[in-house]
User: Fold this.
Amino acid sequence: MVSPPWAEAASHEQYFVLLTGANSGVGLGIGQRIIDEFLTSRSLSSHLILIPTTRSVNKSRDTILSLRAHLQKAANTSKKLRARSGPAYDPQTVISRVHILSVQLDLCSPRSIYQVAEQLVHGQVHDPTGLIDDVQIPRIDAALFNAGIGGWSGINWLGLLRQFLLRGLVQSCTFPSFKIALPAAVLDQRRLLGSSVQKMEREPPELAEVFCANVFGHYLLAHELLPIMARSDPNEPPGRIIWTSSIDAGQDHLSFEDFQARRKKPPYESSKRITDLICLTADLPSVQKVSASYFDSPAVADKPIKPRFYLSHPGIVCTPLFPLNWFLFWAYTFAMYLARWLGSPWHPVEPYLGACATSWLALADQETLDSLRAEHVKWGASTSRLGRAAPKKTEVEGWGWEGKVEDGKTWKEDPTAAIPDMHGRKWNAVDLTEDQRIQFEDDGRKCWTELEKLRTAWELALKKGDAALNQNGH
Ligand SMILES: NC(=O)c1ccc[n+]([C@@H]2O[C@H](COP(=O)([O-])OP(=O)(O)OC[C@H]3O[C@@H](n4cnc5c(N)ncnc54)[C@H](OP(=O)(O)O)[C@@H]3O)[C@@H](O)[C@H]2O)c1
Assistant:
């Protein structure tokens, strides 16, 4: 077998990053930013192996070519890179430290998720452009769960006018209550189950599309990737799983009677609330009782250091996520810039700026993340009026900024923070009380319970069902 181009580097100088939904919007921005920040922050002999996922081979090829073009440009024009290496700077040396491969993943198909995970854990990863030979990867250091769908049909114009008059432009552009959610589409169960259905005593529960693309698909994927994300050596940094939420993920959006938001609630916002709840509560003692079955799978019995969940969001970025015609897209983009110029911290608008929180979580050294207790914070991409991007703590309803009970007197801002925490609060935000904090943990436990039930039902149906079919020679 041919050695991969990073084989000469020491293991700790190889950094493996998986990025879902990399062909568009924020995902592409994250890919570009990870390349730039890796090259300007890591040692000159370290290698980045970036594995963007898309939904087709063509999209994978285009994404790789686009990221390589970005790399080429950065290597040839970045003053920072030149300054790091001194007079002997050679752009080719920089380019040769970044390797991009891809896999094709559909998060709305558990079968596709199992296949991709199997490929990453036991099989080989391809480069559809043919530059790099097929290769088996030893581990993943950071999995960036960015892919997602919106599930809206348009705008309630009367609602927009009302919110604008009542709350003003910045609040209306940050926490819009006028998006019209489509009724949640349910995925075709026959298609998902395929031939396994013949052997099934009981079918697993149906899956709603937005819920599956945004949360459940990633939830399954992270579990399947445990063998290459958990560690046996406590001196190795733990794997990082970085989830993507949204600033607008309030408590009202989730109902446990309608967990997949098929009837009552807006599916997108509901899926993001679940994301906040599972990430921020994952390591709390009362939740660990439920999440243990997820992290302690037999496949990783010899790897006690489990990957950590981190939570990010990109602020507001103009991408195809929200369906708008070209004219409305232009007007929307203008309104978002206006909100930023009026002082909103949550309007990066451009994907590259919206990527700053995720890329920081992916590349920061472990001591920094631990000292900030970063796994208990929702990190947003914030931007100054002039477009300087930086990760910033985001207030979460029921959790506050970091799960600590607050009142106006005890809450202390970090005086050195570029953008104060209080800046960008929702109009009706209140200081966190003990009761709300307890409720949040309780809701986190309920989410984990629901997701574990679904995961085991689908695993039984597909993995074990397929194994039974294969054994019987069908
Ligand atoms: N834009 C914002 O203002 C904003 C705000 C808050 C949070 N976010 C979050 O940021 C993330 C990226 O959104 P975006 O604005 O960049 O949207 P986008 O441009 O529409 O990108 C979404 C990406 O997800 C992929 N995707 C969708 N469904 C998938 C599935 N079933 N399986 C695999 N991949 C799938 C898409 O692939 P295809 O191209 O094949 O469809 C695309 O690559 C999402 O999680 C979103 O919720 C965005």
